[in-house]
Design goal:
Chain lengths: 447, 307
C-alpha cells in the first residue's frame, strides 16, 4: 500500500520547517559482480538492493539519524545524496535541484553545499598530503581562495574544530595525527566550504571512547555556529539518542521506522527497533534486563526475505509476514544444532535433500530421505514444533500436505508492509495496520 | 616532498643482506656512471677514432703500450670503446626506463581511474605486448624505428620503452584501481574535485611508490636486451656511438684466431653492469616485496612470544 509522502511526513519540531532535502522512492541497486564469463553470456547475476525505496524529508537545521545494522544501506543512502552512489531510481531534490539527474560540473558544484565526514579518518585523508593542503583543497578545487586568504581560512577552520594552535598542524601529515585529530581535520575540510548539509557516516565509531563525546559535542557546536543540518549515520542507538532530533531506523535498504528521537526511544514500535533499543547497553548495573538483540543473522541483501524483510528474525512475526521455504531450512538447521548427535543422525536420514528450499517460495516441499516416507518427515516436524511451540515460523504455515515422497508445506501469502503512520511515528510493520484498514488487529503474540 | 619521501622510502628501509646487495650494486653502477659521465676525459680516444696525431692505429694490436686494452679489427681502441660504451648503455637505459616509466604511469593512472572500455582496450594491448618475448618485440620495433629515424640511441631507447611499458602500466593501473576505491578518493570526489585533480593530487602520490623498483629491475633487463640488439646489428651504428653488443658480435671471429681482447672487455662490461643493476634492483625488491617482508615480521613476532 503506497503511502502519500506528504501525509506521511513525520511531525517535526516547530523550528525545523523549511525542507532542505527531499528524497522520494530512492533506489540504489548494485549489480552483483559475476564471473566475466557469466557477464559475457549476459547471464543475470542478480542485484543487491542497497537502498530500495526510501522516502525522507530533511528539514533545515535538524539532525536526522540513520540507524541500522551493517549492510542496511545507511552509507549508500548518504553517498547517494552526494551523487557518489549510482542512483537506480527515485529522486533526491536539494532546493529544487535534482541530484539524480546531475553529473560532472553540476554535481561538483552542488557538492559545495553538501559535505561528508567519513567513518575512518585515517582512510579519508590522503596520506601523501599535509593538513594545510588537505583542509584547504576544497577552496582550491572550487577556486574560492588562494594564497594568504586560503591560509587564513584553513587556520580558521582548524581552530574551529579545536586543532589549535593551527600552526602546529599545518605542516603535519595524517600519519602524524591521532585518530581524533584526523577526524577533526576531516571535519575542518568539510566545513571550510561553508556547506549547508553535512552527512556524517559513523564519524565516531572508529575513535577512542574518550574522544567520542567530545567530537559529538564539537559537531553540535559547529551546527549552532554555522547553521548546519546533519544526517548522522550510526549503528549505535545510544549516540543517536544523544545527538539526533529525528531517527530513521533502517533495515535491508528500507526505512522501517521513523520519528522523533523521544518517541522512538520512549515507545519503539517496530520489533526491530524494539530489539535495537533493548540492546542499548544499560548504564544501571542493577537492572539486568536480558540483551534482546535480534536473533539470527542479517539476511543476504542479494536475495532478501519475502514479505517483511525482518520476518526471519522477528519474535512477533505472524501469518502475513512472508514466510517461505528458506525459513524452513533455517528452522531445521537451528533445531539440529540443539539436539544430540544420535538424534541428529536419525532425523537427518529421514529428511532428504534440503538444498531445494533455498529457492524462495511460498510453498516448500520437504522430501523424505531414502527408505523413509512422508509420515516420518511429518513426525520430525511435529517434534520440532513440540519442542518450541512459540516459534513464529508455525504461525506462517497455512497447511501441511503429507504425501509418500515427503511433506509439502504451504505458507500464508506474505505482504511487504509499507511505511505508515502509527502514533506519532511511521512504521513499516503489519502489527500496525494502516488506519481504516478493515482487517482487525493482528494476533498479539506474547513476548 | 611527501612524494619524494615515499619514493625514497624503500632505499631507507633496506636491512641486512639486501642492504649489502644494494650497496655492492650501487658501487658497480656508480663505477659505470663515472665512466659514462667522464668519457671525454677518461677515454684516451674517441669511440670511432682510427688514428691519433696523424698516426694510424694498428689493427688488432695486443693490450699494452698506447692501447691499454688493444685495438680491434676496425682499428678502434678497445678501452675507449668500453668507456664510450658505458655512456651509450646508460643513455639508452635511462631514456628507456624513464620513457616507459612516465608513459606507463600516465596510461596506468588514467586507465585505472577512468575504467570502462578505455581501460579494457589498453589492458588488452598491454597484455599483448607483454606476452611477446622482449627481444623479439625489441627487434621488431628496432627494425621499424631504424627505418624511420635511423638506428641510434633514441630508436634503441624507444624500442626498449615499448618492451617495458606494459610492466609499469600493469602495476600502476592495478594500484590505481585499488586506490580508486579508497575513502580518500571518494572524499576527494565528495569535495567536488574533478577527475584530473583526483588523479594528480590523490592517486599519483599513492601509486608512484611501486614504480622505482620496477625501474631498477628493468634496467638490468634493458641492458641485456640492448646488448642483444647490438649483437644482432640493430643497436647503435659504430659511427654513432660505442655499443658493447655490437663490439661483441664483431669479436666473434677473432675468438677462434686467439684474439681475446676484442671481445672480453665489452663482454665483461655488459656482465658487470647487468650484475650491478640486478643487485640494486633485487636489493630493493627484497625490502619492498610484501611477501618477503611479511616473513621477516612474523619471525620477529615469534621470537618475541618465546621470550
Ligand atoms: N559499491 C558497491 N557495490 C556492490 N555492493 C555494494 C556497494 N556498496 C554497498 N554495497 C552493498 O550494499 C549494501 C548496503 O551497504 P552499505 O555500505 O550502505 O551499508 P551500511 O548500512 O553503511 O553498513 P555498515 O554499517 O557496515 O557501514 C551491502 O549489502 C553492501 O554489500
Ligand atoms: S511485519 Fe512486523 S511483525 Fe511481521 S515480521 Fe515484519 S516486523 Fe515482524
Ligand atoms: Mg556504512
Amino acid at each position: 500500500m503506497p503511502t502519500k509522502p506528504e501525509a506521511a511526513r513525520a511531525p517535526r519540531r516547530a523550528e525545523h520547517d523549511e525542507t532542505l532535502l527531499s528524497i522520494r522512492d530512492l533506489r540504489v541497486h548494485y549489480a552483483l559482480r559475476g564471473s566475466s564469463l557469466a557477464r559475457l553470456f549476459g547471464r543475470d547475476v542478480g542485484t543487491v538492493k542497497a537502498v530500495d525505496g526510501i522516502d525522507l524529508e530533511i528539514a533545515k537545521g535538524e539532525v536526522l539519524g540513520l540507524v541500522g545494522e551493517s549492510g542496511s544501506g545507511k552509507s549508500t543512502l548518504g553517498r547517494a545524496v552526494l551523487g557518489l552512489a549510482p542512483i537506480t531510481g527515485g529522486s533526491i531534490a536539494y532546493e529544487e535541484r535534482r541530484i539524480e539527474t546531475m553529473s560532472g560540473r553540476a554535481l561538483r558544484e552542488v557538492r559545495r553545499n553538501l559535505q561528508m565526514v567519513f567513518q575512518d579518518p585515517s582512510a579519508a585523508l590522503n596520506p601523501a598530503m599535509d593538513i594545510e593542503t588537505a583542509v584547504g583543497h576544497p577552496l582550491r578545487i572550487h577556486r574560492l581562495a588562494r594564497g594568504d586568504e586560503l591560509r587564513r581560512r584553513v587556520v580558521d577552520a582548524l581552530e574551529r574544530v579545536g586543532l589549535s594552535p593551527a600552526d602546529q598542524f599545518l605542516t603535519k601529515y595524517p600519519g602524524e595525527l591521532s585518530g581524533g585529530q584526523k577526524q577533526r581535520a576531516v571535519i575542518a575540510r568539510a566545513i571550510i566550504l561553508d556547506p549547508v548539509l553535512l552527512i556524517a557516516d559513523e564519524p565516531i565509531s572508529m575513535l577512542d571512547m574518550s574522544v567520542r563525546s567530545k567530537l559529538l559535542q564539537l559537531m553540535l557546536d559547529l551546527k549552532a555556529d554555522l547553521d548546519l543540518t546533519y544526517v548522522y549515520i550510526t549503528h549505535d542507538l545510544a549516540s543517536a539518542k544523544f545527538f539526533c532530533d529525528r531517527v530513521a531506523i533502517m533495515y535491508l535498504g528500507r526505512v522501517v521506522e521513523i520519528g522523533t528521537t523521544e518517541e522512538i526511544f520512549a515507545d519503539p514500535k517496530h520489533p526491530y527497533t524494539q530489539s535495537l533499543v533493548g540492546a542499548i547497553p544499560d548504564l544501571d548495573p542493577d537492572r539486568s534486563t536480558p540483551r534482546d538483540l535480534p536473533r539470527g543473522e542479517i539476511p543476504d541483501a542479494a536475495s532478501p526475505p519475502l514479505g517483511c524483510a525482518f520476518h526471519p528474525r522477528c519474535p512477533q512475526a505472524f501469518d502475513k509476514c512472508g514466510w517461505e521455504s528458506r525459513d524452513l531450512r533455517v528452522l531445521l538447521e537451528s533445531h539440529w544444532t540443539t539436539v544430540p548427535e544420535a538424534e541428529y543422525d536419525a532425523e537427518r536420514a529421514i529428511i532428504g535433500d534440503v538444498d531445494a528450499l533455498d529457492l524462495p517460495d511460498h510453498v516448500a516441499a520437504l522430501p523424505a530421505g531414502r527408505g523413509h516416507s512422508g509420515g516420518d518427515v511429518e513426525r520430525v516436524l511435529d517434534t520440532i514444533h513440540a519442542a518450541d511451540p512459540d516459534e513464529p515460523f508455525w504461525r506462517g504455515v497455512r497447511q501441511r500436505r503429507v504425501v509418500d515422497a515427503g511433506v509439502g508445506i504451504d505458507f500464508h501469502e506474505g505482504e511487504d508492509p509499507a511505511l505508515r503512520p502509527a502514533g506519532g511515528v511511521q512504521v513499516a510493520c503489519h502489527l500496525y495496520p494502516p488506519p481504516g484498514d478493515a482487517a482487525g488487529p493482528p494476533p498479539q503474540p506474547k513476548e | 616532498m611527501a612524494v619524494m619521501r615515499r619514493v625514497l622510502a624503500p632505499f631507507r628501509e633496506t636491512v641486512g643482506f639486501s642492504r649489502w646487495m644494494l650497496l655492492a650494486g650501487i658501487v658497480i653502477v656508480a663505477f659505470f656512471v663515472v665512466l659514462a659521465v667522464g668519457a671525454e676525459w677518461i677515454a684516451p680516444y674517441g669511440y670511432a677514432q682510427k688514428s691519433a696525431d696523424g698516426v694510424d692505429f694498428p689493427k688488432l694490436a695486443e693490450p699494452g703500450g698506447d692501447h691499454l686494452l688493444g685495438t680491434d679489427r676496425l682499428f678502434f681502441d678497445v678501452w675507449s670503446r668500453v668507456v664510450w660504451g658505458a655512456r651509450t648503455a646508460l643513455e639508452v637505459i635511462v631514456l628507456a626506463v624513464a620513457g616507459s616509466m612516465i608513459l606507463g604511469l600516465a596510461l596506468g593512472l588514467v586507465s585505472g581511474y577512468v575504467g570502462g572500455w578505455f581501460d579494457r582496450i589498453l589492458v588488452l594491448v598491454m597484455d599483448a605486448l607483454y606476452a611477446f618475448p622482449p627481444l623479439l618485440l625489441a627487434i621488431v620495433f628496432g627494425f621499424l624505428l631504424a627505418d624511420k629515424i635511423g638506428a641510434g640511441v633514441v630508436s634503441a631507447a624507444l624500442s626498449l620503452t615499448v618492451v617495458y611499458l606494459p610492466q609499469y602500466f600493469r602495476v600502476v593501473r592495478n594500484s590505481t584501481i585499488s586506490a580508486r576505491e579508497s575513502t580518500y578518493v571518494e572524499a576527494a570526489r565528495a569535495l567536488g574535485a574533478p577527475g584530473r585533480t583526483v588523479i594528480t593530487r590523490y592517486l599519483f602520490g599513492n601509486v608512484i611508490h611501486s614504480v622505482p623498483v620496477i625501474g631498477t629491475l628493468n634496467a638490468a633487463d634493458a641492458l641485456g636486451t640492448l646488448a642483444a640488439l647490438g649483437f644482432l646489428g640493430l643497436g647503435i651504428q659504430p659511427t654513432d656511438g660505442a655499443d658493447w653488443g655490437f663490439d661483441l658480435s664483431r669479436a666473434l671471429d677473432d675468438a677462434s684466431s686467439g684474439i681475446w681482447w676484442t671481445g672480453v672487455f665489452s663482454g665483461a662490461a655488459i656482465v658487470l653492469l647487468i650484475t650491478g643493476l640486478t643487485l640494486v634492483g633485487e636489493g630493493l625488491n627484497e625490502t619492498i616485496n610484501p611477501v618477503l617482508r611479511k616473513k621477516r615480521l612474523q619471525k620477529i613476532r615469534r621470537e618475541e612470544t618465546i621470550r
